[in-house]
Specification:
Length: 132
C-alpha cells in the first residue's frame, strides 16, 4: 500500500487490495464443491397388506357409552376388570395399553379404567382420541 503525499489530503491506493480480494474470491469459487454431497435416504415402501396389524403386545381397552368395558374386543363384567387386567399384565408385561373412551363419556369413567390398568402393572397407558 502506497501513500501519496501532495499538498492536498493524503489518500490510500486501494487497487492492490481489490486485486487481492478478487484472487481470494476466485480461489473460494474454485474450492467449493459444485455437486451437493448428502446421505443416501431409503424411503419407506408401501406394505402389501391393506390394513396394518397391531403388534401382539399391545392391548386395546374400550369404554363404551353404556359404561361397559371391552378388552381386545371382548366384554368384561364390572367385577372382573381388575382380575382381567392382571392376567393381561402377566401375559404382556411390556405391552402398551391403548385406552379409548366413547364420545360423550365422562372422564371419571375413563380415569377409573386407567387407574385399574396402572394398578394391575400396566404403566404404559395411551389415550386414543380417534373413533374406533
Amino acid at each position: 500500500m502506497a501513500m501519496q503525499l501532495d499538498n492536498s489530503r493524503p489518500s490510500i491506493n486501494v487497487t492492490p487490495l481489490i486485486d487481492v480480494l478478487l484472487v481470494l474470491l476466485i480461489i473460494f469459487l474454485i474450492i467449493t464443491p459444485t455437486e451437493p454431497v448428502g446421505l443416501n435416504a431409503r424411503l419407506p415402501q408401501e406394505s402389501s397388506d391393506s390394513a396394518p396389524r397391531p403388534p401382539s403386545n399391545d392391548v386395546v381397552i374400550q369404554t363404551r357409552k353404556d359404561r361397559s368395558v371391552w378388552i381386545n374386543q371382548q366384554p368384561v363384567a364390572d367385577g372382573e376388570l381388575d382380575a382381567r387386567l392382571r392376567a393381561v399384565a402377566a401375559m404382556r408385561p411390556n405391552g402398551v395399553v391403548f385406552l379409548h373412551g366413547a364420545k360423550g363419556l365422562e372422564f371419571g369413567d375413563v380415569a377409573r379404567v386407567m387407574d385399574a390398568a396402572r394398578g394391575a402393572g400396566l404403566f404404559q397407558v395411551a389415550l386414543v382420541t380417534a373413533e374406533l
